[in-house]
Amino acid sequence: MSKGGRRPPPSKDGKRPPRRLLGQNRELAGIKVWNWSLPALAARLRDGSTVRTCPAAGVCAQVCYARQGTYRFPSVQARHLANLEYVLADLDGWRRQMTDELHEMRFQGGDAWVRIHDSGDFFSDEYLLAWLRVMASARHVRFYAYTKEIARFKKLVEPDPPKTFRWVYSLGGTEDHLVDLEADRVADVFPDAESIEAAGWHSQDRSDLLAVYGPTPVGIPANNIPQARHRQGDRTLGQWQAERPRRNADGGS
């Protein structure tokens, strides 16, 4: 919502943006986290074109939680699509509205967090730079993200990172080879909690914020989705992704 509680004017494509951009689910509300979402993996726009919202997705696309369950509800999919279309049609307008919203009373006090993308990713340089400008204009809010856009972050974020932004590189994407396991904060999805402990990784299951504030490397237990768990098997997403080049070289799929 714009300053003064007024609904923002229509964007450049004539569509009226949502009154509020950030939402909360029950899990994140308990730790005072708001979230912003885009369609997972890719989206077909109303004009018939397709946008890849997770360009560096790899094997993660086969088990993505954001393509299953409640994320498939028509109302949820419509909201995520509207978010993407707003960003694409009027990135400057979106940035101004996001900044204004972050100055509302609910984000004051210094303990508010925004999780950028519980689905979707930083799909372009321009979009990531817009988020960095939002952070610079709302220094009282803290931000975090999981991302597979490793090359983009190393180019645009790592040289001069905002003090209020924390991120974790999530394995299972096509840019896993760019991760420095010794220097970077890294997360991987494990089959279960026991396999996280056995590997000596640190679970974030108690709080999503442990992914960016707790000890590293970070282990995430797989969601309890039978089909996805069957596909992943007893390997992590990082291990699964690492198998792909070898299979291709051997002539496998």
UniProtKB/TrEMBL annotation:
Bias (Basic and acidic residues): 243-253
Region Disordered, as annotated, extends over 1-22, 221-253
Source taxon at top rank:
Bacteria
Q: Name one Pfam family in it.
A: GP88
InterPro entries per UniProt: Gp88
Q: Which intervals hold domain Gene product?
A: 30-236
Q: What is this protein called?
A: Gene product 88 domain-containing protein
